[in-house]
């Protein structure tokens, strides 16, 4: 098959080899086969069949290929029955009855899904998130004292440090990663039959829930607290919420970083490689492509949460209107990992221009003192400080004079200035000191998450 | 590449060979090459280069492969510049300057996108929709006299015919198909340069808009009414709305048909093929799989409209946060076509059980007369007919007697019965006659859309 | 103001007096005043102002009305400054400077929001959810032995009990309620100033984070782990996810119950009150209105999660494009509570028709044995049991004979029947026994959640 | 009722008196009464009742109040039957039977909804949109020659004029307004009874479709092409799409204008009124509040389109799971109008700082020539112009020299410069001339839409 005949950008432009082990159609079938093998072994332990038969089945499960299964499905029009037939075709007649015995299709499908999502999270996604967190912590700590103007409404407010701005993402991403880890390891399997009441397993076992626990333990899973034909959907829904809300966090970071690359702001830049071309017509132009790309991935995948929510609803003991749609969950996971890895790579090599940060801060330096001035006047007893400072700024703007100069010359303020402490007066004289506890907070946040994940 | 290593179900389970010509990554590049060729020819007509050079470029455009372009992009990190370089590599030195001359990347990308979506719609999607409409018209006309109980709130209301129920979808799908046709043929291209003001083309042409018209005419497209780096997004947005709202219509039909297959209702059935397996544990079970599948496709793809809406917003003369996301539009189109074709196939072979329809109707037959009875009493002057009939039904239920019997024996009603016409009385006596103009309406709706598309 | 001039159905048709205390515009302002009072008291404890002044401010905070604040805002065009001015207007000149001292608007707004959402959850929402859980537990236990046919794809599968079907919702709703409780009590406040770096509070305190903890402790809240102008958005996002995913669970239940009221199924019914009118033209018609209504509320409010996700993104230290939108979060909370209460009321008075359940089960009774039969044949060594049973069912259908009769007469099966245990044979003879552990599972699930919330 | 007890921000903070006539709960009932009156008159024309009775009913319809209807509904639990009873209560016994005769609830509800949405659009929404278009046209024409740097990826690209940037929105908003007008006037009513087959009306009329046309004509509406209990949903869906996609356009404009107000860019400013307060702690700070607000409204209301799409699906001849949700459509309409009016007001008073635009352009002036230079070199035969210019810019940056200087001194380029026309050379010398047809295009777009709506 020619990969350029693929439709999904995930299978061409944004293809990642590593995820195929967990998220491809082939992996779906391979995990189902793993579950069938676990069932056979559990049946043997319960003496329903011999261990020899169980191992024969397990070996067959390893040998069956997705191609084979698809070929069989084409004939009989049932996906899991096709898996079963392929296993049966590879074993002795006398062993055949024990393949899939007592299971309903979704005992296999739901359990396999839980397993591969868990494996994907633990093997690829969480390591990537932790690596990205590492990148962010390093950046935040390195820049914890780099003064930058804080911005609200896109307008200059009061100063922070760039490290502090990055610590926001350490904190938010840390908590989200924790949630993904929690939810990925909480997803459940099931072996409770066609309608969840253990009808079939009850034919053989006094306590079919124990048997369910046993099969699932072999796979490292727990059973759903209640099930119908399928596991309670909320385990997956919560995992997907953890993913999509983390996507929101990284999209926010991508937005911040691409806006800081606006020509007029220019405080950071994406690394630009050797022969890279800036634009097809403007050869010099360097664009925040990769941050835009991460935002674009967010726009593509965030809305898919609504499919996940819609799939919560399944009539009675199950209708299959969530079957095809839930198959697409892998796209969201693959797209998310892609975005995390890309963002990590470009944050890691981010170019921070301290001089530009200083230049931008300086352009507002004079006005920054309005806030501490008003507060100190008020704290020292001026009973209309906010309004008084507002007027002083208007006057300064009109006169084209620095606010500091206007303020220091305002007779009404003198009596209050006398009460200012030395540190307080120092801030009025040098607004770059007005950064609160930016550096200390950055350190604390970074230290917390550093420890948390070690 | 092993297709089972693909992530998207669209590239494995739901793969459709036919759409690759328009929706695959390869097709994206091939259409871009078509646009580059059209540009070269237009330049020749304007005497910027010779016709010989233009044809040399056009031939190169036909020869370049997606593989080549991807290889080049890996080196230089720019997708369209890679296309350009691949063309340049296949032509003479003296021809090279005229490749892509005056164009910005998105002149090529936006125009190519418009073209392949239009081609996809006209070549595959609209024919499929018309074929499905044909199927529905045939079904509606065939069953125009098949009496079925009408249902509101899932409860028996008053009778219709099954053909009339299907005519709903003829009408809704007819209008939607008309809209898709209109919107697909209204999408536009552009050749207005990097920010839409024709900066580059103005270097060469007095009236660069004329030149734009000329290139696009060759491709069968019109220029966007205004453009920035990209075409006004609403052309694509409207097409996608047409698609997603049609998806709503077919999902509704799929829902209706799967509910009519509930065991207790059983009025229709999906065709079931030879060796098909009903369930992995209940061998006899026949499920409305394909109708569930269509609903599930709807759940997967409808939410993607929100990506399309989000992509309407692009800062200033363009930011690229809609670039990756818009690449996924092809998935929605492919998924929709898949659902239409599948639904068509299973509606075409739908098994309609008239006896079951009759049986279900009969179970409510007695109560159906409540509505015409109340109306006729009122029309003939009973001033509290609704309440009087309500009481009669409660009484009938309590007594376990047929409503008709109770009603005919109610002294208060006699004077009004005397005024009923023969036809009116006939309906009270046989509620199966109470189907309004079901058959006639079915014919009219079908005739309208049959003519419309011929 | 005439309530019929309101636009939102939440302020007319679906108006709930009780929620106004937490979710109305007036409550928004009253909670902001509470936060201003807490700030004043904390300032006094830190000796920035006297306790007398703090109490004067706190008294003013109790006296200020929303009307007043709106009037002031109209003059000065700033919502929180209007709150501040209204407090100032009610106190002595010398106390004025200490109102709002050191706080930025969003210290007040974010904290007030956290507080009222938490109060709403603890005072109204969680009690309602627990009451509903109680209703469901009672219903499940009462009907734990009521046999009902299990349904997959809307088709009869194998039997369960109605109590078991309800236990699904006990389990899912239990876990969701637990999550809402957890997330509602985890939301945070902040007092870290205009850009989150404690710039202003650092003017007065060595350790402004301690001061933040102190104010918030008075309100029963903790500070955000990191903040910009606003609290990290994920605390609210997680709460809203908990709400919207619970909405999915109750919508699923509503769907199940309305489908069970289809005329052909008729297993349950909504309570119908005295003078209630069924339909405007069909006086006898009883519809599952309230369950449809709950589903409709879900359709209205679930998509609003999209707004919550979009509001996660705020540029740099804050842009205000999430300000108006986040004001609408109250609608989602109000709508959800409405739906929970309504569903509770109609589930509590649900009419369960055991005879109808029996009748529906009986209609499929014969075919139910296909599953246990195939499984027992397989377990006892028949090496092609699934296919053999599939053929037997086709044969039975063709011959119009009961499956049981066909099966018992099949010579090939005899040798296996001999190996069946008495209990196994009993199930083949009476499929009503084939309900697995429906009753026991129901008990366990109910017991677990009963204990959990006591 | 205290308005501060309202939940929805639309009923407090964002309340608009004007819309209550069309979008309030009261208006819903008043429009239903209008439809009942039209029905009575049509019955009279068909001689089912006398004209005197019809007028008595029509007068009663004018007199009935929403309060009355709600009171009655509380008793009987049916909204339209309550309307009917209120009318009946005000008329003579002998007239009572003719109220609502032959109609089903949704004949009234669907028709009334269509009517008030149409009236709202024609009376308020479209006039507001046209006024806003007028504002944009005025702004675009006024600034058609104001040079501004074009921006892609947020980075300086090549120049345009600010008028041209605004013309984008004239064009997009023009087409959207046209679509809203088309779709609002295309919505339909219905009088086809409980399941759409004209069952009831067929009791009285040979051709009930004619009767339907007659009632609706009186209201200025056409009948749905097919109906079930309700009008085909796509008429409303298309109107809502027109609205929500227009919301995308105005959100995009709001985004552009708020980004142009970033401190570093500062090209435009929101009007700031007299006593207005900039920030609660930074008295001098002027924020793009209203543009942020419009964006926030978009985030609140765009996702509601999801509800509209979900409401397309209604089982069989209708289930009511779209009843409550469709009642909330009025919120989207009210929210959209609010945003349009607000944006109009602040665009109308927008402060444009031409000097800032010039300053920003100047900062990139030197690099701008890269594009025309490469193109002219290529057009004049340089066979590797893009790469040659790319290298020149890298060299210029390294050397800290102006690109123009570097380029003019490059020996390789001299032979090509000789071929440049005078106009071409002038652009290399003054990049401010490199604005393509910005002014002319602006004029044409404005002229087109000016004419279109006159």
Could you please describe the fold and organization of this structure?
The structure is a homotetramer of 454-residue chains. With 454 residues, chain A is mostly helical. The first copy, chain A, folds into three domains: 15-98, Fumarase/aspartase (N-terminal domain) (Fumarase C, Chain B, domain 1), CATH 1.10.275; 105-357, Fumarase/aspartase (Central domain) (Fumarase C, Chain A, domain 2); 370-433, Ribonucleotide Reductase Protein R1, domain 1 (Orthogonal Bundle). Chain A is built from 20 helices and four strands. Chain A has helices at 20-23, 25-45, 51-63, 66-76, 79-89, 105-142, 162-184, 208-219, 234-259, 289-301, 305-310, 323-327, 329-348, 354-368, 370-379, 385-399, 403-408, 411-417, 422-429, 438-452; strands at 147-152, 155-161, 268-269, 351-352. In chain A, the strands form two sheets. In chain A, strands 1-2 form a two-stranded antiparallel ribbon. A two-stranded antiparallel sheet of chain A has the order 3-4. In chain A, α2 (25-45) runs antiparallel to α3 (51-63) and α9 runs antiparallel to α10. Chain A starts with 19 loop residues before the first helix and ends with a helix. Chains A and C meet through β1, β2, α7, α9 and α11 of A and β1, β2, α7, α9 and α11 of C.
List its traits:
homotetramer, 454 residues, mainly alpha, Fumarase C, Chain B, domain 1, Fumarase C, Chain A, domain 2, two-stranded antiparallel ribbon, elongated
